[in-house]
Design goal:
The structure holds two protein chains of two kinds. Chain A has two helices and 25 strands. In chain A, a hairpin with a 5-residue loop joins strand 13 (about 235-240) and strand 14. Chain A starts with a helix and ends with a strand. Chain A is mainly β. Chain A has helices spanning about 1-15, 40-65, and strands spanning about 85-90, 95-100, 105-110, 125-130, 135-145, 150-160, 165-170, 175-180, 180-185, 190-200, 215-220, 225-230, 235-240, 250-255, 255-260, 275, 285, 295-300, 310-315, 320-330, 340-345, 350-355, 360-365, 365-370, 385. Chain B is mainly α. Helices cover about 70% and strands about 0% of the residues of chain B. The chains are: A mainly beta, B mainly alpha. The interface between A and B is large, with 57 and 62 residues.
Chain lengths: ~400, ~180
Amino acid sequence: MTERIEQQLRDAFAAGAELVRVEALRPADGALRPEARARPRKFLVLVPVVAALAVVVVSFAVVAGFGAPPPARTGEAGSTSAPRYLLVAGKDGLAIHDARDGKITERVAMPSTPKGITRGVPGGYLLAGTGRGTTFYVAESVKSYTTMVSTTWFYRLRVDDRGQVAEVARDVIAPVIGDAVSSIAVTNDGTRLAYSLDGKVCGKDRTLRFCPGARLVVVDLPSRTTRSWTTNAFGNIWDLSWAADGRTLGFGVHSEVRVLDTAAAGETLKNSHTVVRDMLTPTGMAISPDGRMILIGDASSPSGERSGRYSIEEYSVTDGRRIRTVFGADHSGSTAAQWTLIRYDATGRHLLIKGNVHPLSRLDGGRTTVLIHADSPNASQQEMLAAW
Amino acid sequence: MQSEIRNVMEDPPPEFPAVEPPADVTVAELFTAHRLSLVRFAFLLVGDQETAEDIVQDAFAAVHRRWRRLADHDQLLPYLRTAVLNGCRAVHRRRAIARRFGVEREAPFWSAEVQALLGETRREVFSAVRDLSRRQREAVVLRYYLDLSEAETAAVMGVSRGTAKSTVSRALRALAVKLEEGR
């Protein structure tokens, strides 16, 4: 008797449970229903009001501060000489290239890392340079097969005046464990390293699963002190770049281009200044060494007989006004153009640029020099990063 | 700083740091692996998929929120089951209060459409299960849907193993009587 009842229960429960179909479940990445919260006590209602007033005051102060962009340091950004060498990450790993003609001067053998899952460019490398073509930072993220936790190791490379690797220093900062690093930038003087983490920062009513967000970290290398900022904005932080003052950081988040004064108070990116909204993403962008301008990649897709246009536009940091087109070209075919790299050198007079339909090139005033041609065996245009 | 610079080409590769996967990784993996079964478990107790999904989502949120306070990260699934069960109990309490005020809404599970899908025999079983006490219902669902042992059932319900055993036993007797009556 009992066995029959047990069998009936198992059968009925299995059939009843089958009424919930996996495809009928709510999407896992949708917004979480806010939890019911206790009504705040009366005096607590005053707290958010006071906080809101404080935010208004602080925001005014921050915005006002941007009226006078930080001056570029003379001596460092004042040099007219272009960087001599580039560091390029491609299908064949890392290599030092001559910044004048793109020729490889030395392939870089990086220290080995544990086997795991790498992201993006082969090797999972991210590159940053001081803009002088001599000192580079490399971040390498590997996700463990067993724990599925990413570890990012940071290296510093120095290149001698013959384009040969002079030194490789490992663990210039402690490995970052957890989320993968998505972008890095180093100041012209090489003292501050910024990196961003894909990740999920959660508010009170959300779980990590449901609230994408990201984190920005700045490490002062001599003192090893760290500051971080978080954002709940959907999407990752991309294309970090420093102004020459070493405190103003440009970056993209979601579809916005923003500038952050890293010396100002605050732990979230709410206090950053939005320069341009509703950008095509992902795209290349870079803040100028003097901190006054931001370059942003723009592109339109080919339509029918009409070719597409891709360009680099210059915007004013102060008011987000578009100032001029720095570079522009047409392209045909079915591929939508996309900028993957825009980098100033330390002087602000030279640009390193690359897109999926544009080869790695340098831009000196109005002159463009292709450094690695698309048909070159070293090209692997879709997956290449470079820094100088 | 200068003294730290060295050539490291010949160094052996570093080991991955010995770390426990962070909360988001573990919770995300648990979510992927067990969300469906937990929603179905809650559905069998509350009879409403939307409510069941909310309960399960809240349970995962609670696990994440209390991550640091959870002593044993290897016991997350039992903890989740308990959280879901408590969520179901809370729903039943709210429904009982609503009934007292004359507000009653039949759970979608008992709609004619769903009952037709189940067939007559299963419908009788569910009807008999519905007449069990709350604790007996929970015990049989844990035991015969999730296939938990007596000890696991007891742990999720927060009672002793003996209590779980006797609860299931009494539930089976009641069901036998009920189902025999219906024949």
